[in-house]
């Protein structure tokens, strides 16, 4: 497994190293020891899945407020998404920067989203499914978000040719919210 840094401090793209043969392939997608060596969260207390019927579905940018901040490890298990991490940590050298990666069922890559960062994605295919692993339990009272098109962050979403679908909640999140 390789760890590729992103433009957001502490956020990584995890690239599996598949072993292929006549049967198909085998690839490790999570390795607690490799995460620990890098000082990253390595214990996951919850896993969730998001199924998205249509290409152009935008979810996010979501995070949990203190003291319920969570680290996420996100992987697309069906279809393809454009996955985004946005740094909301005021003390971070990359505060208000974002990184976006394409996660697909074929590339089997994962995005490691550190505490204090918002996360969101745009589906690039119909029937996209996303697996989330979190190091802290979900706390509904701590659920927050930042508007998907907040100019202070400036995410360049690949929306050309897509009809956007999103919840009213995601459309109405405020611009930069304190963490």
Question: Can you give me a brief rundown of this structure?
Answer:
The protein has two helices and 13 strands, in the order ββββαβββββββββα. It has 179 residues and is mainly beta.
Average pLDDT reading: 96
Strand content: 35-45%
Across the major sheet, the strand order is: 1-2-10-7-12-5
Low-confidence stretches: none
Distance from first to last alpha carbon:
31 Å
Shape designation:
globular
User: Which H/E pattern describes the elements?
Assistant: EEEEHEEEEEEEEEH
Structure description:
- This protein is mostly beta strands and about 180 residues long.
- The protein is about 5% helix and about 40% strand.
- It has two helices and 13 strands.
- The strands form three sheets. A six-stranded antiparallel beta sheet has the order 1-2-10-7-12-5, with no helix packed on it.
- The protein is globular.
- The mean pLDDT is about 95.
Which SSEs are present, and which pair or pack?
Blueprint: E1 2-5, E2 12-15, E3 19-21, E4 24-26, H1 32-37, E5 46-52, E6 58-64, E7 72-78, E8 80-87, E9 98-104, E10 110-113, E11 117-123, E12 128-134, E13 143-145, H2 168-171
Antiparallel strand pairs: 1-2, 2-10, 3-4, 5-12, 6-11, 6-13, 7-10, 7-12, 8-9, 8-11
């Amino acid at each position: 497994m390789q760890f590729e840094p992103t433009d957001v401090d502490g956020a990584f793209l995890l690239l599996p190293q598949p072993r292929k043969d006549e049967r198909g392939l085998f690839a490790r997608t999570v390795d607690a020891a490799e995460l620990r060596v890098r000082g990253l969260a390595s214990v996951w207390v919850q896993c969730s899945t998001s199924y998205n019927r249509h290409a152009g579905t935008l979810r996010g940018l979501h995070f949990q407020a203190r003291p319920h901040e969570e680290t996420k490890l996100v992987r697309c298990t069906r279809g393809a998404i454009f996955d985004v991490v946005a740094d909301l940590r005021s003390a971070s050298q990359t505060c208000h920067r974002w990184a976006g990666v394409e996660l697909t069922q074929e590339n089997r890559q994962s995005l490691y989203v550190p505490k204090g960062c918002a996360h969101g994605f745009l589906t690039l295919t119909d029937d996209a499914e996303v697996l989330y692993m979190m190091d802290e339990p979900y706390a509904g009272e701590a659920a927050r978000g930042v508007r998907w098109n907040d100019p202070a962050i400036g995410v360049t979403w690949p929306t050309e040719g897509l009809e956007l679908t999103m919840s009213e909640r995601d459309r109405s999140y405020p611009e930069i919210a304190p963490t």
